[in-house]
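Researcher: Can you fold this with pyridoxal-5'-phosphate in place?
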Amino acid sequence: MTEDKPLHICTPLLESVPLSKKAGFKVYIKCDNLQPTASFKIRGIGNMCQKALKKGGNHIISSSGGNAGYAAAYAAKQLGIPATIVIPGSTPEFVADNMRDVKAHVIRHGKVWDHANTYALQLAKEKEGSIVIHPFDHPDIWEGHATVIKEIKDQVPQKPDAVITCVGGGGLLCGVIEGLQSVGWMDVPVIAMETKGADSYNQAVNAGKLVTLPDITSLATCLGSLTVCQKSLDYYTQHPIHSVVVEDKHATQACLNLLDDHRMLVELACGAVLAAIYEDVIPKLQKEGKLKDNIESAVVIVCGGASMTLQALLDYKKTVGIE
Ligand SMILES: *Cc1c(COP(=O)(O)O)cnc(C)c1O
């Protein structure tokens, strides 16, 4: 593998018949669940690893709730260097096994990501040549994530009236905004979805400054960063962004719906994105005057996620009380 060839693939963009029927306008799904690591994360993390390797790094260290660590492990293997991944206690064992399967050294530490991250930074300090891969707060990550919009620009027949995504730490959101700006789609509004209990972005935009949540109480652990990155908050004042919070129940129902509608299994984080359509978030934003009335099309970024199984989804279904 040459160092310059991206580690991510150009994913399919589909016009979704069931989602379009539900929405009443054309809904395109950008299938980043089909990335080799099952989420969009490889875009930014692959880019960051490639750049760090060129600057002389020799060992990748990452902390994450799963998909970032998996992407870092996969990137390290593709680039032929070792990886150490520090994961919080909430990460399922099969996800840790996925990382081990791509030759990563996996360490469990702390309850939530922030704790694992502190430990990873400490390890990196002790080892020369360590490349610390932050899951969301780095310009190289955002640059890599921006490729999702560049691909969409070439795949859609018309400029969309909205792009729907989600916010964990805000890395994907920053990439989406940078992508939109680079393709000249400055006026395309972004709908930034979160779940209640992991709504660090919504609280930050309402407060006008970063807010640190005391704990993550949402089941969508992938959205569970206690604090979002400053850049994602800065973009709120520079681009039309609408922050929306849904219940875990809605995210779970959206995952079940996607499974039936498209035969695709994704994490609750991605369910939060899909809930924008399945739970009629767009009409609500239109009623509030935040989106224009005549929407012709929207793009949903199916961010994916490797930490989901059919059994886990059925367990979530029971937990949130869906009959
Ligand atoms: C990481 C991740 C998110 C959140 O992305 P941020 O860049 O942290 O905002 C959402 N969905 C999935 C599947 C993820 O892996």
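Model: Folded with pyridoxal-5'-phosphate in place. Residues 38 and 271 are 14 Å apart (CA to CA).
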